[in-house]
User: Fold this.
Amino acid sequence: MLAMDYRGPYRVRAVQKSTPDIEHPNDAIIRVTRSCICGSDLHLYHGLVPDTRVGTTFGHEFTGVVEEVGSSVQNLKVGDHVLVPFNISCGSCLYCQNQLYGNCHEVNPGATAVGGIYGYSHTAGGYDGGQAEYVRVPFADVGPYKIPHDLDLDDAVLLTDVFPTGYQAAEMGGVKEGDTVIIFGAGPVGIFAAKSAWLLGASRVIVIDQLDYRLEFVKRFAQCEAYNFREMEDPVVFLKKITDWQGADVCIDAVGAEAAGSAMQRLTGVKLKWQAGSAIAVQWAINSVKKGGVVSIVGVYGPTGNLIPLGNAVNKGITIRMNQASVKRHLPRLIEHIQAGRIKPSEIITHKIPLEEVAEAYHIFSSKLDNCIKTILVPPSEMH
Amino acid sequence: MNHEIRTSEVKGWGADKNPLDRPAYPMWHQPEEGTGAHWIEPEKQEMKFTVLKSIERPAMTSAFGTSVPPSGLSGAIRKFAFKYSESSFGHWIPLLIADRVDMVEGVLDDLKHGHIPNVFKEMGLKSEFKYNRKSAIKKTMVGALMLGAVPLLYTYLRRKHARPIN
Assistant:
């Protein structure tokens, strides 16, 4: 089968690999119909995630048709078209039982802090991902979700990670009616976090980024205010000023480890790797939220440590909430929102690229070329 | 500054404004319909090759990935890293080193199989020329100058230090 193949930082290619086998009685083999490149895939692509082995296939956002099922699979049958949450979850550990599917303790031997994620290094379980023609899906009775007939495939694939992650960011922020919400990052997750903040009843939604084309997009898509931090002397002072000098009720970090905006954070976090990524978005979030407010983090960071102003967080009495999205528990509600016409996730897709051209797709997304926001990879069988 | 966006103009505003009726409330919540699992404890996946396990775990997990088992020098470094816990730099720094070693091993493996890696293609640089031509040309020229500078400097130094032949 054709699959993406990681060769080292900034180098990937499409190659022929063996089709995956059933390895566990509750496995399924899925023929991929859509897969995405996620912003967090760029952390792998840039060589920032430890234990990312040459030869791995990335991709944790995908839909597909069930081709084969293991002997104990009961809830899926061959031919079902499913969307597959990025979290691999056993369904029976303490965390899964309580719907914390992103924290499953039974699927990642290499680490205990992080659960299992498709195509996200051996630090997240060593699973191959969905940027391929076929993919192995463990615990097929737990994760995959049958795509309703009236749901567009391009909307469905965005329900595997970005939309639920953006929604959970707003939800973890505890957004209440009348709240002011600031979102750092106008990438796909930030865009969905902005829209979700409105769904939760915010009265004001502000997005901060450095790319004008993304700010223009989020302004249209999520009907929010959007500002470029490159035009500000000090983003925190600017944000205080436009929020009556108090700060926002909720600040969301939707950027993660490669945030721009601080030369020192970039040098120590991205170039020298002395910390687990640049934490400038968290720093701004803590300093821009009002006293007693909430900072919600869905940006992805490495496993070691980061420089953040903990003293300010303590002195302001803020709450910091963070987690990987528990995709499965959000799906029924988010599908309801799509069906009701409140949101059309696929509007964020700017590029549909054949899987064969995966290297170009990564470069375009990584370098923000051609006003790229979200890239979909289409396998050869779906190119028509 | 525009902060005159009326919530009534936002499609879907407040659809989930009741904090008690949100998908992740309460955080710890067992679903009545179950999780899809029909087992108390999942069956164990058969281990067919070396799988590195965190020392913070008492036993192997029920399922694990089968992608790229550890091998070569990078594999040896990874095995060393797994002697340390996830809270130790002794775990993560060797893993990052192993990743870089793995990259070199990947190139050597390609050459061993008669394949010369097309780095230009693997880096997707065609799109750089298509969408960011000016910068791509600039980078190429700087790269070419730097590459060209090495043999030129070498030739110059050789000539300078060459003894005249009588």
User: Anything to note?
Assistant: Residues 52-60+68-117 of chain B form one domain. Chain B touches chain A through 82 residues (CB under 8 Å). The radius of gyration of chain B is 29 Å.
